[in-house]
Amino acid sequence: MIGRGNLRDAPWGWRKSSRSAGNASCVEVGVMDGGVAVRDTKHRAGGFIAASPAVWSAFVAQVKVGRLDLC
């Protein structure tokens, strides 16, 4: 699911990684009913991408083992 709109006040508990250290180039993750949403911190009103819990878990598992590294 891809959505648009200002989600700044959405009750999804948006948070960004503590490793971002104030860097403006990061994403926020929010837990929503039935899934997880991801948005760009530089353009919060630009939209979000949402995934089911199963899809999000599979994505995180692939990231953790390095299968999605760009380098």
Describe this structure in words.
This protein is of the alpha+beta class. The chain has one domain. The chain is 17% helix and 28% strand. It has a five-stranded antiparallel sheet with strand order 1-5-4-3-2. Strand 3 and strand 4 form a beta hairpin. 8% of the residues are buried. The model has no long low-confidence stretch (mean pLDDT 79).
Distance between the termini: 28 Å
Structural class: alpha+beta
Please, how many domains? 1
Radius of gyration: 13 Å
**Mean pLDDT, rounded to whole units?**
79
The proportion of residues forming helix, as a percent range, comes to 10-25%
Q: What's the assembly state of these chains?
A: single chain
Strand content: 25-35%
Count helical runs.
Answer: 1
Strand order of the largest sheet: 1-5-4-3-2
The tally of beta strands, per DSSP, is 5
Order of helices and strands: EEEEEH
Question: Which ranges are low-confidence, i.e. pLDDT below 50, for 5 or more consecutive residues?
Answer: none
How would a textbook summarize the main sheet? 5 strands, antiparallel
User: What sort of overall outline do the alpha carbons produce when their principal axes are compared?
Assistant: globular
